[in-house]
């Protein structure tokens, strides 16, 4: 296995987007940042030099970090941020996963421009469990803001109404927005040869939107999601929530020509209001320049049945590379509600909050009625507190395994007790798990302030998705739907709008692991919790000592 080592500079520089120059904070002067291409078993070492004016950390989304917990990256959770002029070295070995992952900043909204692909190929001498492809192409979907993303993130942290982005991007450029000549010049074009197979490694690095993705006249065979192989799944539309990845094969078996590859938002809720569609072009070699590309017929933006079909029909490649059978016994059962709510205004000054129905409020979010706050200003990260074996003053270990009371979670008109959940207390809580215990979590969406899909991401683990559905989870009926044979394996699940998902994982990774909604607006509102996984019995199953250059708070 190889060691792949880079030095990266996080820095401010000027770029042109949408016909204007802007100052952005990103890595090594590019958006997206550098791609990491490795094989399973390789070790990655990234020396980060923070030359920007902001605190920053980097996170390797989907990497287990077993034995390298100090490299996971969420600020104040596994490390204090790298201050301006500071440095830190991330080092981890990739084992037991292949496919497409990505990396991103885990501080404020900086991931808007600080992200890139992390592609894991099989070890030398091993091959993919699908037909050979002619070329592999990363497709990173992102968002562009004309404003300063650090400021936009700070507004969200206060609970103010989120600001929507100015464009969606494909591989860093605003793509081809309808009627926008500024973006058309920068459109990404993928040149292909007729009669070949291409593997698209699609990453939803957008901050706040799920997306439908289609290519005119071409269909996909999905072969992996979140760096885990799937049974080949044929579809003409792909759906991804922020944080998720999809590896899909296309055959260039159409007439020589150009075809739009288009993303449009899947809106699971009426409150999400970015209507734009962004496009890139798939151009066959020899295609005439003068003909306009063919446009795919995209689903309606509110087409939940199409999104749900994609999200639920994919199955894991049982028996394939790195497949681990589903644990059949459960040591820890949790039922976790999550959703958005309002909270009374606590910002000083007149007009600082959101005026709504005669009172001043802020937006907030919670899991099991606890609104998570990062332990900023408490002297250390959660992981350092865990390592010292003294959480006091940093976090508490009483995250509840059940919501405080049972109500009709998904019908706001019937949810009489649910108003109480509008005032979720702010806290920094962890749920303690025994080393190697198996954990099952029912993720239940709530309708306190409307419902929408929330992409729930767990650091440090992949999990099996046993079942998903709409309405209130009902164990007596829904347990019979569990797929123990070939469930999909993910690190981010888009829990259905007004519905539930049941996930299961083995807590074989000691440390502190953040669980959160990957919609960037919702994390600072508190849609998060954390797991504290106890040390195991052997040296290799214990949290190692922190690296010497770990940043101080
Ligand atoms: Cu991709 Cu906690 O994040």
Automatic annotation (TrEMBL):
Its main location: secreted. InterPro entries: Cu-oxidase-like_N, Cu-oxidase_2nd, Cu-oxidase_C, Cu-oxidase_fam, Cu_oxidase_CS, Cu_oxidase_Cu_BS, Cupredoxin, CuRO_1_LCC. It catalyses: 4 hydroquinone + O2 = 4 benzosemiquinone + 2 H2O. It is found in: Secreted, Extracellular space, Apoplast. Binds 4 Cu cations per monomer. CDD domains: CuRO_1_LCC_plant, CuRO_2_LCC_plant, CuRO_3_LCC_plant. PROSITE patterns: MULTICOPPER_OXIDASE1 (PS00079), MULTICOPPER_OXIDASE2 (PS00080). It comes from the Eukaryota. Its EC number is 1.10.3.2. It holds the Pfam family Cu-oxidase_2. Residues 10-123, 136-287, 399-535 form the Plastocyanin-like domain. SUPFAM superfamilies: Cupredoxins (SSF49503). Its cofactor is Cu cation. Keywords: Apoplast, Copper, Glycoprotein, Lignin degradation, Metal-binding, Oxidoreductase, Repeat, Secreted, Signal. Lignin degradation and detoxification of lignin-derived products. Belongs to the multicopper oxidase family. This is Laccase. It comes from Stylosanthes scabra. The lineage of its organism: Eukaryota, Viridiplantae, Streptophyta, Embryophyta, Tracheophyta.
């Amino acid at each position: 296995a190889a060691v792949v080592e880079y030095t990266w500079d996080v820095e401010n520089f000027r770029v042109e987007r949408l016909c204007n120059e802007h100052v952005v904070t990103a890595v090594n002067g590019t958006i997206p940042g550098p791609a990491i291409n490795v094989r399973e078993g390789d070790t990655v070492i990234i020396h980060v030099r923070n030359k920007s004016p902001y605190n920053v950390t980097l996170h390797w989304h989907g990497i287990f970090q077993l034995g390298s917990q100090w490299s996971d990256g969420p600020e104040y959770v596994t490390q204090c941020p790298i201050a301006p002029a500071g440095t830190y070295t991330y080092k981890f070995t990739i084992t037991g996963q292949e496919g497409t992952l990505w990396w991103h900043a885990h501080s404020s909204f900086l991931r808007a421009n600080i992200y890139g692909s992390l592609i894991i190929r099989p070890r030398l001498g091993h091959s993919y469990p699908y037909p050979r492809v002619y070329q592999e192409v990363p497709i990173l979907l992102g968002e562009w803001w004309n404003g300063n993303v650090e400021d936009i993130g700070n507004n969200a942290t206060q609970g103010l109404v989120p600001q929507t982005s100015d464009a969606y991007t494909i591989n860093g450029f605003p793509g081809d927005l309808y009627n926008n000549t500024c973006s058309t010049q920068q459109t990404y074009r993928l040149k292909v040869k007729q009669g070949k197979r291409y593997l698209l490694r699609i990453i939803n690095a957008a901050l706040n939107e799920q997306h439908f993705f289609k290519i005119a006249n071409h269909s996909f065979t999905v072969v992996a999601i979140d760096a885990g192989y799937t049974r080949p799944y044929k579809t003409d539309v792909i759906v991804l929530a922020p944080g998720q990845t999809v590896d899909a094969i296309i055959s260039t078996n159409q007439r020589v020509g150009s075809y739009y590859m288009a993303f449009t938002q899947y809106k699971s809720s009426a409150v999400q209001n970015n209507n734009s569609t962004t496009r890139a072009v798939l151009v066959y070699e020899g295609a005439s320049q003068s003909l306009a590309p063919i446009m795919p017929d995209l689903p309606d933006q509110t087409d939940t049945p199409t999104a749900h079909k994609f999200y639920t029909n994919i199955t894991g490649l049982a028996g394939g590379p790195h497949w681990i059978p589903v644990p059949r016994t459960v040591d820890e059962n949790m039922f976790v509600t999550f959703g958005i709510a309002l909270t009374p205004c606590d910002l000083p000054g007149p007009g600082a909050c959101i005026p709504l129905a005669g009172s001043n409020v802020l937006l907030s979010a919670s899991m099991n009625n606890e609104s998570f706050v990062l332990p900023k200003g408490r002297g250390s990260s959660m992981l350092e507190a865990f390592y010292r074996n003294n959480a006091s003053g940093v976090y508490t270990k009483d995250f509840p395994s059940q919501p405080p009371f049972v109500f009709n979670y998904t019908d706001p008109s019937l949810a009489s007790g649910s108003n109480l959940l509008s005032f979720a207390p702010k806290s920094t809580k962890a749920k303690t798990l025994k080393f190697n215990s198996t954990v099952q979590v029912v993720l239940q969406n709530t309708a306190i302030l409307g419902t929408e899909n929330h992409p729930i991401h767990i650091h440090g683990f992949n999990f099996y998705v046993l079942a998903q559905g709409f309405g209130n989870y009902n164990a007596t009926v829904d347990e019979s739907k569990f797929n123990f044979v070939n469930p999909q394996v993910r690190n981010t699940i888009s829990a259905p709008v007004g519905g539930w998902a049941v996930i299961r994982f083995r807590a074989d990774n000691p440390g502190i692991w953040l669980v959160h909604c990957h919609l960037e607006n919702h994390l600072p509102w508190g849609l998060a919790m954390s797991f504290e996984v106890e040390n195991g019995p052997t040296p290799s199953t214990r949290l190692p000592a922190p690296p010497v250059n770990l940043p101080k708070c």
